[in-house]
């Protein structure tokens, strides 16, 4: 292990060498734009770049690749927090955009990069052709959106944040920064953003000096998934020897690497742009794993906040890694690429990519976008199959005209008893017109110190750079506030007789949070909210569960359990690898404005809530199926079914639970299928959703699926679950789309808020309602905001004063379609022969409804104990208790 004093000697030596040899020719810093998917190793790369001498290298902008390992709303705020920690609020940040591509290939402004180019239509709605290879939950998008739970625990929170219609888009930032003068571009995610920029702004290519890419595998042979030398015949190699690293899809495509596979056509456009490219592929990164010696040395050398953040991220990655091969299968991907690129850039005497960290070689390569035979029309290739003339003037019979991989288990790609044959995203060596001469890193250089325990030269550079005192982080979340205290707020109900036990099943849409406020404000003698179970199969991604924790903390209800439900709708996870799966239904939700980007940030307001000590973490234990115990298994995120069982166990003898569902019915279906007689423990189920249509003009609200005119989102997003519920013995009250629409009046409800007491929860609800209403008024992408307004009704109907609300209902036999047909799934119809008798809410007193909601939130009882993050900021800064 390297002693700390020796490390600092190395810091001074490296700093001196850099200062002596790495001045730029122009005497000005080399400008850098980083396009990233904000994976853990991307964070390492970003911090490595931010630590460079700013007189030599200046990070001007960060744009976020939103169709890979993280979701836009979570990743953009993490970038803002990292930059705040590093004192770099000057760096432009771009994400998303709602532009589209027309059928004739015309690229509209501000295409958001939420979808690969081949799937990009005129909106941010589209299929997950390539992204389905990325796990959604553990060690996938959930963990990376939250950075395993470390993001909220460690990073300070500044004033910059995502705000609807004000957030600079990725294309806006690229155009502005590249127009400003010569710049170098780093691509460490899928290439969608930059390819769109190049295709739409060819006149600005002249300002791009060089492109550095981490991704692909040219001659690489995957060292993971191999059988030990002494293994018997029962051991079956997995990715062993493959060019690529698609561990979830190697059976269909053993050739691609994740960054290239995320958008092969975009990568092709970048490589064939004519701009000089240096590639750091798996060939090189596979030779620089996170070794145990490096890990141990890093653990002993965390002298800056950025080093601490990186190490904590690395440690939880190790502790949650599948199997026991972390030190042989986790590599320095993007951080190594950043090191190689920086060393090349700052060496003014460089002619052939000479650098300190990697051996280099020129190769002739291309990026494969389709599979032979070419000129095939099998429905897999929208560039050729969906239009009269090929899109973007592509050549009929050319390299883009073959079969394009459609999914993880594409039958075209599967070879019985052999490796898959698809090559989409493969960085292949070729000759002829398709060949592009690219400078390629082939392997990591060994340490120049022969006696060093760190046997790669870059190991030392990475540790020295992160620990260097120059350009260091200012504080972490805890050190930002001198009087920070971690406090949980739990109520004391004393001798109160608690009301009926209720479980709230929510998908974390904006309306669900308004409904949650209401449930928390209803007297506990009427409603005893026992738990919240979260369905991430609806309008928000799973990491948004942190917003629930923050709202509960605000309301002094840290006692309420929160369980995370299944990440896929029923029958949508892959049967061979359950961490990945299809997006047949959830693809209907927009990724950009009015969709996931806004829901995950609660329309830009989530960060105004007080920050709870409770949050999602990847902490886990062997008891719950983890490969090993992490440091704090007690912080493990409970699952929805576990929380349900805990609620049932806590019931008084003879008591039953009432359930309110405000999203897809995935959780409820799983609950009733989990054990026999579960339905006997449920008193009533209030379901907000479904649409009973009356005539051709009475449409549903799945506005993104034109073929399905009569479905409602909550039923459409998991029709199999909905059918399971409506085939059960549950007592159901349905609050359908019709009654939701009749009471959805933003102006009338906002008028009621003028006359009530301004509790903190009332102020927040009014702010959220006002934002939704204004967005609806000024932008067509927000026309569906009434959908979320209507979701309040379920909570009011469940708990409201029926003497004033005056609800009327009718009982009808209801059937839900779940036939695997997109144009019909999720539709709820009256079927006298096969339907289940359901009580359907038909009418309420509108005025009483608005009064009940506004007055309850304005009631000073059961009010917020801490109003906002700004209140916490003041309290932790001045020792106010």
From TrEMBL:
One of its GO terms (molecular function) is hydrolase activity, hydrolyzing N-glycosyl compounds. Residues 32-372, 502-850 form the Inosine/uridine-preferring nucleoside hydrolase domain. This is Inosine/uridine-preferring nucleoside hydrolase domain-containing protein. The lineage of its organism: Eukaryota, Viridiplantae, Streptophyta, Embryophyta, Tracheophyta.
């Amino acid at each position: 292990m390297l002693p700390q004093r020796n490390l600092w000697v190395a810091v001074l030596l490296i700093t001196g060498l850099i200062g002596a040899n790495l001045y730029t020719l122009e005497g000005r810093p080399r400008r850098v734009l980083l396009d990233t998917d904000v994976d853990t190793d991307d964070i390492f790369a970003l911090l490595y770049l931010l630590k460079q001498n700013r007189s030599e290298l200046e990070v001007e902008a960060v744009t976020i690749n939103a169709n890979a390992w993280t979701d836009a709303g979570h990743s953009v705020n993490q970038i803002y927090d990292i930059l705040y920690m590093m004192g770099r609020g000057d760096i432009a940040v771009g994400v998303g955009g709602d532009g589209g591509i027309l059928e004739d290939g015309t690229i509209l402004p501000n295409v958001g990069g939420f979808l690969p180019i081949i799937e990009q239509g005129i909106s941010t709605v589209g299929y997950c052709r390539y992204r389905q290879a990325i796990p959604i939950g553990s060690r996938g998008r959930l963990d990376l959106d939250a950075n395993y739970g470390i993001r909220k625990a460690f990073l300070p929170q500044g004033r910059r944040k995502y705000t609807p219609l004000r957030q600079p888009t990725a294309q806006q930032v690229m155009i502005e920064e590249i127009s400003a003068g010569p710049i170098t571009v780093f691509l460490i995610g899928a290439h969608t953003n930059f390819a769109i920029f190049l295709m739409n702004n060819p006149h600005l290519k002249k300002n791009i000096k060089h492109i550095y890419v981490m991704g692909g595998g040219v001659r690489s042979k995957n060292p993971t998934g191999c059988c030990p030398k002494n293994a018997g015949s029962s051991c079956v190699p997995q990715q062993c020897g493959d060019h690529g690293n698609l561990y979830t899809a190697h059976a269909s495509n053993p050739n691609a690497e994740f960054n290239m596979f995320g958008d092969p056509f975009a990568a092709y456009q970048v490589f064939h742009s004519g701009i000089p490219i240096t590639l750091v592929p798996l060939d090189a990164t596979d030779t620089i794993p996170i070794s145990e010696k490096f890990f141990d040395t890093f653990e002993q050398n965390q002298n800056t906040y950025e080093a601490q953040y990186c190490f904590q991220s690395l440690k939880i990655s190790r502790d949650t890694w599948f199997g026991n091969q972390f030190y042989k299968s986790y590599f320095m991907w993007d951080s190594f690429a950043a090191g190689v690129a920086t060393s090349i850039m700052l060496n003014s005497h460089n002619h052939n990519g000479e650098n300190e960290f990697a051996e280099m070689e020129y190769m002739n390569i291309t990026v494969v976008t389709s599979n032979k035979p070419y000129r095939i029309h099998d429905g897999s290739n929208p560039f050729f199959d969906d239009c009269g003339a090929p899109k973007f003037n592509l050549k009929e019979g050319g390299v883009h005209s073959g079969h394009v991989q459609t999914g993880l288990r594409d039958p075209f790609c599967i070879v019985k008893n052999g490796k898959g044959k698809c090559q989409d995203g493969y960085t292949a060596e070729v000759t002829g017109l398709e060949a592009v001469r690219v400078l390629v890193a082939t392997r990591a250089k060994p340490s120049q110190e022969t006696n060093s325990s760190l046997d790669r030269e870059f190991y030392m550079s990475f540790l020295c750079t992160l620990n260097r005192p120059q350009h260091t982080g200012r504080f972490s979340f805890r050190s930002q506030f001198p009087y920070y205290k971690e406090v949980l707020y739990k109520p004391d109900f004393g001798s109160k007789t608690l009301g009926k036990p209720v479980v709230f099943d929510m998908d974390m849409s904006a309306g669900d949070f308004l409904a949650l406020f209401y449930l928390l404000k209803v007297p506990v003698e009427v409603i005893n909210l026992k738990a919240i179970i979260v369905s991430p199969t609806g309008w928000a991604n799973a990491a948004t569960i942190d917003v629930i924790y923050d709202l509960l903390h605000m309301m002094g209800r840290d006692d309420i359990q929160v369980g995370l439900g299944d990440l896929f709708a029923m029958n949508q996870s892959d049967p061979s690898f359950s961490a990945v799966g299809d997006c047949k239904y959830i693809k209907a939700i927009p990724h950009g404005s009015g969709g996931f980007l806004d829901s995950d940030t609660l329309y830009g307001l989530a960060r105004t809530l007080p920050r709870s000590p409770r949050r999602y973490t990847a902490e886990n234990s062997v008891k719950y199926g983890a490969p090993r115990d992490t440091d704090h298994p007690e912080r493990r995120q409970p699952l929805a079914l576990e929380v349900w069982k805990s609620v049932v166990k806590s019931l008084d003898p003879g008591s039953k639970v009432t359930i309110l569902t405000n999203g897809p019915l995935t959780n409820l279906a799983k609950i009733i299928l989990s054990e026999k007689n579960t339905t006997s423990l449920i008193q009533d189920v209030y379901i907000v959703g479904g649409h009973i249509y009356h005539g051709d003009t009475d449409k549903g609200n799945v506005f993104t699926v034109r073929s399905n005119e009569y479905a409602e989102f909550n039923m459409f997003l998991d029709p199999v679950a909905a059918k399971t519920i409506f085939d059960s013995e549950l007592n159901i009250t349905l609050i359908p789309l019709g009654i939701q629409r009749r009471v959805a009046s933003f102006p009338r409800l906002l008028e009621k808020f003028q006359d009530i007491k301004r509790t903190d929860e009332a102020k927040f609800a009014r702010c959220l309602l006002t934002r939704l209403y204004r967005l609806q008024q000024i932008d067509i992408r927000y026309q569906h905001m009434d959908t979320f307004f209507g979701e309040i009704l379920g909570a009011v109907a469940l708990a409201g004063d029926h003497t004033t609300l005056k609800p009327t209902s009718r009982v009808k036999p209801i059937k839900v379609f779940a036939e695997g047909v997109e144009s019909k799934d999720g539709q709820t119809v009256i079927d006298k022969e096969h339907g289940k008798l359901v009580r359907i809410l038909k009418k309420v007193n509108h005025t009483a409804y608005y009064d009940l909601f506004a007055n309850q939130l304005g009631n000073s009882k059961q009010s917020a104990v801490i109003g906002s993050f700004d209140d916490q900021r003041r309290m932790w800064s001045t020792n106010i208790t």
